Amino acid sequence: MEAPQEFAQRHGKIQSSGIFFILCFFTFGIYAVWWNYKAWRFLQEKEDLDIYPAVRALFSIFFIHNLLEKIDSMAQEKGHKGISDATNATLYIIALIVANLVSRLPEPYWLASSLIPFYAFLIPSVQQLNHYWESEASSPVSKKMSLGEIIAVIVGILFLSLILLGLFLPA
């Protein structure tokens, strides 16, 4: 059995709320799916669950309540004050549905869907996971953006720039 500190160092990465928001914004919410996957993958190993983290991440609308509840419970065990995980999960689902509906509007109005930050309702759970990792790790866990995250933001900025150029340049 793996020692708790080794497990925390392998899985735990403290991520500021601001960086999480930036990653989600510039990847048009795709990073939220990745975050869901990583959280489910961690829980799968920690609790020896018989689940498919990728499926739960892709269909987060059905599994987000359970994920946020588990994160809340873990964080409270480590002394973090509880959050309203059910409210955040419900607001996440509502905002995700609204963003999806807005994305079906004609050009250029569909762009407004990227301004609906459904992933903002995950931030309290990101903070709870940070608390959990800080209490589990024997040494400080990285707070810096990884190379992959930096590349994702750069690609997102370039993609957003191309969309805006396409909207404002004459045909």
Lay out the secondary structure:
Blueprint: H1 4-11, H2 17-26, H3 30-47, H4 53-58, H5 60-77, H6 85-102, H7 123-136, H8 147-168
Helix pairs in contact: 2-8, 3-5, 5-6, 5-7
Give an account of the 3D structure.
This protein has eight helices and no strands. It has helices spanning 4-11, 17-26, 30-47, 53-58, 60-77, 85-102, 123-136, 147-168. α5 runs antiparallel to α6 (85-102) and α5 packs across α7 (123-136). It starts with a helix and ends with a helix.
Brief description of this entry?
Helix content is 67%, strand content 0%. By secondary structure, the chain is an all-alpha fold.
DSSP helical segment count:
8
Structural class by SSE content = mainly alpha
Helix content: 55-70%
- Please mark out the parts with pLDDT under 50 across 5 or more consecutive residues, or reply none: none
The amount of beta strand, in percent, is under 5%
Question: How many angstroms separate the termini?
Answer: 63 Å
User: What's the order of the H and E elements?
Assistant: HHHHHHHH
Shape: globular
**DSSP strand tally:** 0
Oligomer: single chain
Sheet bearing the most strands, described?
A: none
Radius of gyration: 17 Å
Overall pLDDT metric = 88
